[in-house]
Amino acid sequence: MESLKLPATGRTPEVDFDFAQGVLRLSGESYPDDVATFFGPIFAALRGFLAEPGGHPVRFDMELLYFNSSSAKALMNIFQMLETAARDGRSISVTWCYEENDESMQELGEDFAEDLHHVAFTLKQIPADGAS
Amino acid sequence: MTFNLFAAEEQAIEQARLLGERLGAAAPDLRAEFDALVEAFQRSTREQRRLVRVSDRLQAQLGSANQELERRRQEAESALADLREAQEAMVRAEKLASLGALVAGVAHEINTPVGIAVSCASHLSDATARLRGRAQSGELSKADFSRYLTTATDTTALILTNCERAAKLIASFKQVAVDRASAERRAVHLNRYIQETLVSLEPKLRQSRHGITVSCPDGLVVDSYPGALSQILTNFVMNSVTHAFVDAQGAEGQGGALTVTVDEPEPGTVRLVYTDNGRGIPPDHLPRIFDPFFTTRRGEGGSGLGLHIVHNLAVGALKGTISVDSAPGQGTRFVLTFPKDTPPEDGAA
Lengths: 132, 349
Ligand SMILES: Nc1ncnc2c1ncn2[C@@H]1O[C@H](COP(=O)(O)OP(=O)(O)OP(=O)(O)O)[C@@H](O)[C@H]1O
Ligand SMILES: [Mg+2]
Fold this sequence. Notes:
The structure holds two protein chains of two kinds.
Chain A: E1 4-6, E2 14-18, E3 23-30, H1 35-51, E4 58-67, H2 69-87, E5 92-99, H3 103-113, E6 120-126
Parallel strand pairs in A: 3-4, 4-5, 5-6
Antiparallel strand pairs in A: 1-2, 2-3
Chain B: H1 7-26, H2 31-136, H3 142-182, E1 186-189, H4 190-207, E2 211-215, E3 221-224, H5 226-244, E4 257-266, E5 269-276, H6 306-317, E6 321-326, E7 332-339
Helix pairs in contact in B: 1-2, 2-3, 2-4, 3-4, 3-5, 4-5, 5-6
The complex binds adenosine-5'-triphosphate and magnesium ion.
The site of adenosine-5'-triphosphate has 23 residues of chain B, from helix 5 and helix 6.
């Protein structure tokens, strides 16, 4: 399945879904003008990828440092899709990155992990100011 | 009792759980579907909690961004205030410096007539001593006496004209200096006042052999701030001398023609047109020449405040307008228009 790569814009994050390698990454800031337009294709691609037979391991790197409420809800939906796939037997890991000193982001990560039982969830501290 | 934002949701979930148990007994085939609904509601409540946290975090970020913005705004404002203060200080320093240059110029100019008067006086004194000697020794001839009379007539005439010239210089200098220092409002005979101002610039002009022509209606009297006028004119002339006639090597050139033409385009309005026939100002410099610190001679004595001060005086003190018209090789022309009688300050008592 073809990769999904979108460069970051002022309001949307960089999307780098390398389906062949099973490495999916969202990074940057996310407060799109229109959630449906931005996340619609992402969900479609992800849904297609998870439905494919084969089921090799998936890694999802969540490197958003700033996101609005709609993006947060979209993220929860993505996590739910991953959780369902993991429950069905696929090996899935999620890494939640937060900048050092950003405690509220770390706590959010813990909150977001609450519904993940089959997904392997890790929190990862990265240096402040971008240099990840 | 601890406060719980989601107490109502938790209570509903608890009720649903109890209902599930009763349903399990009454209609066991519906139980699984019902439990899935309860589970979905539970998850939705957890998501709601997370969304509340996300939005709280966003609000907090917005708050600190606003504080940061306010802090930067204050920093920028105080930097601007510092800059204004520094600029005013430089403007004051520039005024003092131009006064200093004026003093030096006038001192040089007064030196000449005073020197001539002194040597004439000493010549006369020598001739008088000789005459007295001859008279005392009874050797005074008619020819001696008439030679002495010629000498006395010539020297006293020279002494008189040179002393008058010195007195005139001192008077005009006093006028300009006082006007500059006190920026006093008063009525002046414009033509005479322009001439007086130019007297103090004569050494500069003569040195570089520039000629200046003044044309001003003779009866024109303005009730304004003559100090400002004289400073404006001085700046025009000094700029022509330093910028307009420089050659390719940057040396001040010679033999330019400067004009000052005054008329009354309509009753109550005075228009002063100043021109030089020098090298003119390039179009990309033209919009900036009145800006403070714009100069093409930085490092060679130019501070770039001259025309800024001119602009401030024209608009501020004289309540008039100033414009420039120039092109490379076409000379430069400034038009200063101002009310003949400066209107009083707005709201001034
Ligand atoms: N008559 C002129 N002919 C050609 N260029 C001129 C003339 N008058 C002004 N300029 C240009 O405008 C610039 C600004 O003039 P301004 O009097 O403000 O500053 P300055 O003469 O360079 O320095 P300062 O007057 O502070 O010693 C000059 O540097 C020069 O390039
Ligand atoms: Mg100047």
